[in-house]
Specification:
mainly alpha, 2 domains, about 0% strand, membrane, cell membrane, glial cell-derived neurotrophic factor receptor activity, GFRA2 protein, GDNF/GAS1
Length: about 240
């Protein structure tokens, strides 16, 4: 379909909201997109692979902007963008869920930075750093940066504000404040807080509480980790 090929354009990722608009404006693409969403409604990969209509819809969409569309963190229509992305990729990732692509771009440089800094902070030579407290140094470095200090103070304050005896904090606001901290503060500060090396349990607990306040995850009845993981994967933003 020549019209569809013209919509595909260059290989660089397209915003999923925009890609959805492009697909909706082209009858062949929009009808195949509806078909594919029906095929994936039951999240059964075998059904998708066995059904000819589903295969045809998938083949058409792989040549459209929707197949390679991505989202930007904090964008105006982020949730809508993620819903469009996962409406296609949710069923296709089955069996490969640990290796599925990220809906966000760019992802490679961000991940390589995380692993590079993780190895730097976790692999420091104890002989040369025995008198240093890397977690304290990371907190001090954050406090010297106005943006880091402000957003860190914001999430600590939000996540430690008790609402009642039975409700330790507003978890929704706590999660939002944590997301803002990681999205808006440069990795040189957030990664140091995440990966500062500790040599005793007290330091490790301080690090955990500093970066992941209990309010963000602790419940009176502790749920099964697999249930939590399933709930997160079902939520577009958490996923």
């Amino acid at each position: 379909d020549e019209m569809l090929r013209s919509l595909a354009g260059p290989p660089s990722p397209v915003d999923c909201v925009r890609a959805n608009e492009l697909c909706a404006a082209e009858p062949g693409c929009s009808s195949r997109y509806r078909t594919l969403r029906q095929c994936l409604a039951g999240r059964d990969r075998n059904t998708l692979l066995a059904n000819r209509e589903c295969q045809l819809a998938l083949g058409v969409l792989q040549e459209s902007p929707l197949e390679r569309c991505r989202c930007k963190r904090g964008m105006k229509k982020e949730l809508q963008c993620l819903q469009i992305y996962w409406s296609i990729h949710l069923g296709l990732a089955e069996g490969e869920e640990f290796y599925e692509a990220s809906p966000y771009e760019p992802v490679t440089s961000r991940l390589s930075d995380i692993f590079r800094l993780a190895s730097i902070f976790s692999g420091m030579d104890p002989a040369t750093t025995s008198k240093s407290n890397h977690c304290l140094d990371a907190a001090k470095a954050c406090n010297l940066n106005d943006n880091c200090k402000r957003l860190r103070s914001s999430y600590i304050s939000t996540c430690s504000r008790e609402l009642s005896a039975t409700e330790p904090c507003n978890r929704r606001k706590c999660h939002k404040a944590l997301r803002q901290f990681f999205d808006r503060v440069p990795g040189e500060f957030t990664f140091r807080l995440l990966f500062c090396s500790c040599k005793d349990p007290a330091c490790a607990e301080r690090r955990r509480q500093t970066i992941v306040p209990s309010c963000s995850y602790e419940d009176k009845d502790k749920p099964n980790c697999l249930d939590l993981r399933g709930a997160c994967r079902a939520d577009h933003l958490c996923r």
